[in-house]
Design a protein that fits this description.
It is found in: Membrane. This protein is an all-alpha fold and about 325 residues long. The protein contains 14 helices and no strands.
Length: about 325
């Protein structure tokens, strides 16, 4: 979700004063170079490539996030990135860093497609409702439309593909014993043991985090990029976008990480036949973690998440832009 949001910002982010008009003209011209289907393909493939390259860090993040569910205090104090990575290699093998990556790719492709498609539809709808025309250059109205459109697109995509996100978490969280043998086995087992609603555990925390996450991503990226371009207009747009995108990723991850951790914990409720740990919904789970583990417990796994943000943004940006160039050439032919 975060990554795709930033890709959209890279492609269509606005800037104050004269930069807004210039960027909108550039974006409209660029959009004419590539069809909607090609754009969706580029976004989906870029997301899948990025997730595959950063899968080891993503799995470490998930393992740290869920440690407090069934671990005692002494175990938590000994946790470190190097110790956990060494354990994975020695007990599960190097390939285990990519455990659950297939379902991540299966999830990422439709998620990206739905995000891009619904973002454009929501943006056009909001422009009509607010009376803002596509060619107008009102900075405040443009930011509002993009923030609201991005938030609604994120909610739509997250709701439609959430069961795959839950399965990915459960597959990634497995260590020595593989209770779930694959995507379809996990979907069938969860539906049978926990009911259809079991596939949507933690959805509330996910939806609560989508809006703020995208809002922070959009505003931090847009503000930093606009200021940079005003101060150093001759700098490479690639460097500017990567640096500002990384900054927005760190900011949004910091703010939304507690909700993401709550979502992961709720996704693992009842997994593998274990007794439920949290029984009072999103806010009850939040309070339980806060009481049992303190503020630090809500940020368990934030370090590998930070390490993941910068390469993830860079890979998505470069893959997305390169694929758009290739696909635009195919469309032209």
């Amino acid at each position: 979700m975060q990554t795709e949001a930033r890709v959209r910002v890279v492609e269509g982010g606005g800037s104050p004063h004269k930069l807004v008009a210039h960027h909108q003209r550039s974006a409209q011209h660029h959009q004419s170079q590539i069809g909607a289907v090609s754009q969706l393909i580029a976004g989906g493939v870029a997301g899948a490539v990025s997730k595959t390259c950063t899968a080891p860090l993503a799995r470490l993040t998930i393992l740290f996030q869920v440690q407090g569910m069934h671990s005692d205090a002494s175990t938590l104090k000994k946790a470190s990135i190097w110790r956990e990575a060494s354990r994975i290699v020695s007990e599960e093998g190097f390939r285990a860093f990519w455990k659950g990556n297939l379902v991540t790719i299966v999830h990422r492709l439709p998620y990206s497609s739905i995000s891009f498609y619904s973002f454009e539809r929501y943006k056009n709808m909001l422009q009509l409702m607010s009376g803002v025309e596509a060619h107008e250059t009102s900075f405040g109205a443009d930011v509002f439309v993009r923030l609201a459109g991005g938030g609604l697109a994120g909610i739509t995509a997250a709701s439609a593909t959430y069961p795959l996100d839950l399965v990915r978490t459960r597959l990634s969280a497995q260590t020595n014993v593989n209770y779930y043998r694959g995507i379809w086995h996990a979907l069938r087992t969860i539906s049978k043991e926990e009911g259809i609603l079991g596939l949507y555990k933690g959805l509330g925390a996910c939806l609560l985090g989508v809006g703020p996450n995208l809002a922070i991503s959009f505003s931090v990226y847009d503000t930093a990029r606009s200021y940079w371009q005003l101060q150093r207009p001759d700098d490479s747009t690639v460097i500017v976008s990567l640096a500002c995108g990384s900054l927005s990723g760190i900011a949004s991850s910091t703010v939304s990480f507690p909700l993401d951790l709550v979502r992961r914990r709720m996704q693992l409720e009842g997994a593998g036949g274990r007794a439920p740990v949290y029984r009072k919904g999103v806010f009850g789970t939040f309070g339980h973690i806060l009481r049992a583990e303190g503020i630090r417990g809500l940020y368990r796994g934030i370090l590998p998440e930070y390490y993941k943000v910068v390469p993830s943004i860079g890979i998505v940006f470069m893959t997305y832009e390169k694929l758009k160039q290739v696909l635009s050439g195919i469309d032209a032919c």
